[in-house]
Amino acid sequence: MEYLGTILLILLLVAMNAFFAASEIALISTRRSRIHLAKGKGSEKQLEALHHLLENPSEFLATIQIGVTMAGFFASATGAISLARNLGRHLEASGLPVLAILGEEIAVICVTVLISFVTLVLGELVPKRIAMAHPERLALISSRFIFFFSRVLRPVVVALSASTDVISRLFGVTQEAASSLSDEELKLFIAEQWTLPLEERRLISEVFEFGDTLAYEVMTPRTDMVCIEENATLGEALELSLKSHFSRLPVYREDIDNIIGFVHIKDMLPALKEGDLEKPVREILRPIHFVPATKKVVELLRELQQRRIHMAIVLDEYGGTAGLVTSEHLLEELVGEIREEHDREAPPYRKISDREYLVDASLPIETVNETLGVQIPESEESETLGGLV
Question: Which domains does the chain have, with CATH numbers?
Answer without folding.
Answer: 4-180 (no CATH), 182-209 (no CATH), 215-335 (3.10.580.10), 349-388 (no CATH)
